[in-house]
Amino acid sequence: MPVYEYTALNKAGKNVNGIIDADSAVAARQKLRGSGVFPVEVKETTGKPKDQVSGSATISTLFRRIKPGELSVLTRQLSTLIGAGITLVSSLEALISQLTNPSLKKIMAHVKESVNEGNSLAFSLSQHPKAFSPIYINMVRAGEASGSLDLVLDRLAEYSEAQEALRGRFKAAMVYPIIMTCLGAAILLFLMIKVVPEITKMFSDMEQTLPLATIILIGLSDFLRRFWWLLLAGLAAAIVLVNRFRRTSKGGYIWDDIKIRVPIIGGINQKMALARFSRTLGSLLDSGVPLLTALHIVRNIVNNRLISDVIDKAMEEVQAGKNLSVPLSQSVWFPPIAIQMISVGERSGELEKMLHKIADIYERETESRIMAMTSMLQPAMIVAMAAVVLFIALAILLPIFEMNQMVR
User: Taking the model in full, what pTM does it have?
Assistant: First the structure.
């Protein structure tokens, strides 16, 4: 059944926009009139597969992107409806009617149309890869094959919520240090450009030799006052160049190596990658996805090429008949405790349960390390700001003290 976008007038005379499925444009208009609105414009949506929309992204599509939280809510609601015995098409129709995100509403309307034509839900979702990740599609496919789609969707919602919560905690912990760094930099720039030159004007007429700290301060202030734009341009250029370098194959590998080796942050990145690996692999295996297929999916979402290379090697050795713990034990990025737990899980036939336990361990460790890091950052930033302010104060006061001694 085709899907139509419409603009209509409601009973209050206000414009309303939305989508509706009907056999034809005429049927869509009749359906809208029946719901109490007067259609002004009705046009069929293209619904290009693979999200291949011509042209660049507009501002409206940028602000209407699908948030992970919206997808988690949709998944849990769909699981509840199917678990209650409602047919898939009716469940999708009920969901579409209450969605507020226009982009997600349009996608789900096309998914419903595809399912109504006889396609599987996994195939219909796979036509929109920007909205639904490979793990999402593969877990849905496994759920359909095993006849437990509602359980798989519920597990998928829990997985999405856990991943989003972990990302949210990391972002929330970094907000304060970032704000304080930007605020401190802005205040120091203002002092160096506006305040310091006014105070140090008196030193230009002095015939005595100025202290080294004062000379350095005047030089820095002069440079920033004249070339602050050059500094900002250089910073912007450096960010652009680093981003371009990261997108290259070699650059991306080097960047991932730095991310995982740098002190403090490297340990957090490693544990986050291991938690993502364990949680995703455990969820896929729980849903009935074969181990090799699950590993292939996981390698693309760990977000680190070094660990992806380890998974590639593990896939080859698992295909050759070895246990998963054997190739992983040869890597420095998988700690012994994780290897031992995976080995125990393989021997006991409870690999999925062990993977979830590993994910729990590393998620907790990640959270505690982030909290420890932020608690150390705050006093470190205060000390650094105090040191800079002390340097400025001394650089200004030292010549004044020398002048007082000369007068005496």
Answer: 0.67
Query: Exposure string (b/e) for 352-366, b if CB count within 10 Å is 16 or more?
Result: bebbbbbbebbbebb
Residue 371 CA to residue 369 CA, distance in Å, equals: 5
| Mean pLDDT in residue range 271-293 | 86
Q: Which two tokens stand for residue 330?
A: 């040869």
Segments of 237-309 assigned E as strands: none
Q: Which CATH class is domain 167-408?
A: mainly alpha
Of 323, 320, 357, nearest in space to 338 by CA: 357
Reading the block at residue 298, the tokens are: 């996981």
Nearest alpha carbon to residue 273 among 298, 250, 246, 290: 298
Partners of 9 in the beta sheet? Answer: 15, 38
If you ran DSSP here, which 8-state letter would residue 356 be given? H
Q: Is residue 407 predicted with pLDDT exceeding 60? A: no
Give the orientation angle of helix 305-319 with respect to helix 265-286, to 10 degrees: 40
Q: At the topology level of CATH, where does 62-161 sit?
A: Receptor-associated Protein (1.20.81)
